[in-house]
Structures
1.
Amino acid sequence: MPIIAMSNPKGGAGKSTTALLLATYLAERGAKVCVLDADPNQPILDWKENGNTASTLEVIGGIKESNLMEHVERLNHQFVIIDLEGTASLLVSRAIALSDFVIVPLQASAVDVRQAGKAIRTIRDEEKVVQRYDAKRRIPYKILLTRTPAPGAPVSSVQRQLEAEITATNIPRFRTTIADRLAYKAVFVERLTLTELKDRAIKVGNLDAAYQNIHDFATELVEELQPTTPTEEHRER
Amino acid sequence: MNGKFGLPPDDQGTPQPDPQAALTQRLTAFPSATRTAPLALREVDAAAAAHGFVSREQTVNRPRRRRIAVAEPTRHLAIRLPESQYNRFVLYADRLKLTYHDALRQLLDQVGV
């Protein structure tokens, strides 16, 4: 059961959007997926409870420092995605320490990048802490560029500089970026999945391209994750 | 042979793999399993605090409680328990305005122990 956290202390970096798009896509592909909505605004819980989606995605809200561990230990899903708040809180750091993979979404802006740096340093330190108990334990992470121009559109100089710096510093990043698309905003407005938007003929930009974008991202992520067999840390329920 | 460079066309009709089906197949390798994740929260929190990660939640206050004299001899019970359970117990006692030992007695009475 890989636990995947979305972390960047900067708000608006694309954590909730990425979490929802990834989770609904994996669920649509037949996986049993749960999102722990740890964002105080509860955007994913709102999406699930106040809409008419038929997605099998399960969403649990009200996640706090004091109940995070308890919730995680009760779950038996194939994938658990934790959508974290855009602050530097103990809830965020505890979720990072629990996770098998951390996605650090960020837009090509100086503020996003500086805050992402804080998240990355925390991931590295938390990894050292958990390795005191399990020397083999790793907390891998990758930067995910969000709200990038659609393929073929001009790329800003800020983004080019950022990508050059990521390459120079050897910080791992996803090849795929999440483009700035109307369809992603519509997912939250209509409270539907990308597929449901298409099925209902809701016109919100290029839905096929949006779907392909998420497919590419999900495929790249799943290649990073190792299926685990039940061990002393994992047990079948 | 067609084309300016004489490249042979793929006339074998090689079926292209469906990338979405391939992902669906790969996802089945991930088992549904629960996770037991004992973490030393104090150390995890300390590592995060160095980078400015602090608690954003109100912690449970522990007001001074009135000591109740009891006729029988008393014994000391020290319990180490998960923070979430600790908070639940303290909230339960606060909500009912009970001392901890009265709260524990009430819970024991409820289950008939």
2.
Amino acid sequence: MRQILIIDDEDDIREVAALSLEATAGWDISTACSGADGIRAAADPGKRPHAILMDVMMPGMDGPTTFRQMQLIPEIAGIPVLLLTAKVQGVDQRRFAGLGVAGVLFKPFDPLTLASQISDALGWKD
Amino acid sequence: MTALPSIVFGLMLLSVFLLGIHTLRQSSRTRELQHEVELLRDSLKRSREYAEQQKTKLALRSDLDTVKDEFISTVSHELRTPLTSIRGALGLLSAGMMGNVDAKAQNLLRIASTNTERLIRLINDILDLERMESGRAPLKLRRCSMYDLAREAVDTMATVAEGAGTKLELVCNAPRDSIYFDADSDRIMQVLTNLLSNAIKFSPSGSTISVQIDSNPNSLLLKVVDEGRGIPPDKLEAVFDRFQQVESSDASKKGGTGLGLAICRSIIQQHGGAIWAQPNQNGTGTTLWVQLSRSARASDTGSNSLIAPPSERGEGLILVCDDDPGIRVVVAEQLRQHGYDILEAGSGEEVITLVNEYAGLGRRAGDRDGRARHISAILLDLYMPGMSGWETLQRLKETPATSSIPVVILSVIPPTDRPMHAGTAQGWVQKPFNENLLLAELGRVLRSYSGPGQILLVEKDQELARAILAGFEEAGVRPDHASTLEQAVDRCLLGAPDLLILDLTLPDGDGFSLVEWLRRQPTLQALPLVVYSSREISEAEMAKLRLGPTEFLDKAKVRPKEVEELVLKMVKRLHTSTAVPAAYRA
């Protein structure tokens, strides 16, 4: 079963996104409410996720910073990261794309297609 | 002999008197001069201060732009964040992912869900429009095929059309290889899907929506023809305004944001094209027209919605004359940001030299490739060392070749105090001015005063053309010449002339086909026309040749001088009527 880690500082968005992925794709979801928390969760050998869905704007370490930190940790550097952002301006999109993330998804997402968007971005066939 | 001393005394008195008058005159002249010097000094000081202010303002504005960008980005983010939770929760509930709910609750969930979607579209559209109009969404131009884009749009919208019981068809009346143009394909797709989505929304079930592509040497024309309820004549233009829907209930019923067509127009205008709506000839439905130039210019300069650009096709070349380089730099920078090209002159003498150079250049270049570059307007300071603004103005207006260039005075003197001889300037802006005032006045002058007229002569005989044109140049009219049908079409697309003189027989076609083409162009269909033919024209033929005010002349019976007189009369009539035909605003 696919394991996905959702990192977002908004409780409601974490919950809705988790519900959406569980209900539509049946994936196993874990969540974290900050970048630092997310890194700890991802590095936990027992619960290493197949992919990470991460908010961009978070207090403390934001999404891009967290992503760069993750790349320094060999155990989790290979996990594909998808950024989830409410910023739709072209300049932001280009900045995110330049980071080397696996993809950028936009808020507000459609809860019924979020799972297939993630699968598409990561090339998951199942 | 007693007379002598009294004469001497008288003479002495007289000379004292004259000397007194002279001294009085001198001192009044001195006072005048002093006053003028003071005025000049004052003006110089204010100009310098103004230049400084403007420099600070420019710096401030770029700071403000950054702040505005950040603000929009933040607001967008702040609105999207709660909407993400709402959309997610409602979406999962109304799709039954969290178990079944009863019918009434289901209906309420549907209402909440569709309106959430609408709110999201609205936020996206507002941001989109804002970004485009502030010039922060520059076009990514590349070579595109209009057919491919239309095909893609039709395919994308096919399921939506099917759902509404309507059919989409695509008709290409132009050769496939002739419909390439420079465009931002994503933006054009946005326009096409928007037009199709509108057409589907307002079309009855069972009807057909037709997308048609036409082309001519310089532009591409795309039409979306529907059989829907139509747009009332008084709303044809208003539908392109923000939040203007034909019925106020359309927003909620049809799920639109009221910004779709405003975005379409903004995109098309950015591409240097035009978009407008027209009722169908048969009385049912509407046709949305999109006209795009094949060589679209990459205009990423934002146009201020307050100030319309003077023409659809380009903002023009402005000669800025001020002896203070600081002011010239500021004015030039402001105008450039609004798409004008700038020439600078530091004195009246320089203005005269430049203007004459350009008058000659325009004529020579016009003979060669038709892209006659002429000065659209002059911004003129009044107090300058050497030749003053007044003298410069007078010189310009006295010379036929330059008398037609509109002049806007930039002066510390308020326009209400303008001396009598300032009547020949077309506009006036008092210093210190703000940017909007300057642009508004310049725009007004350019729109209302296009000189004594641009005339296009379509005549295959070079000798005859030269004879006719020579007369116009002396009369201060800007004449242009095309010797073939194709050239004539090119010239018309470069810029609508004020009047067309047309010879019926041309090497690559006849005058009839040109008139037929002109009739299909919204900006040219009301063009005043003089038809000039070597043979008799029948009544039936005349009917086919009429555009705007149309006159017919027989080559055998009239002399070039008479043509000139008639043409000048027509141009004059044209300029005294101030109403702008609706088509020109499209």
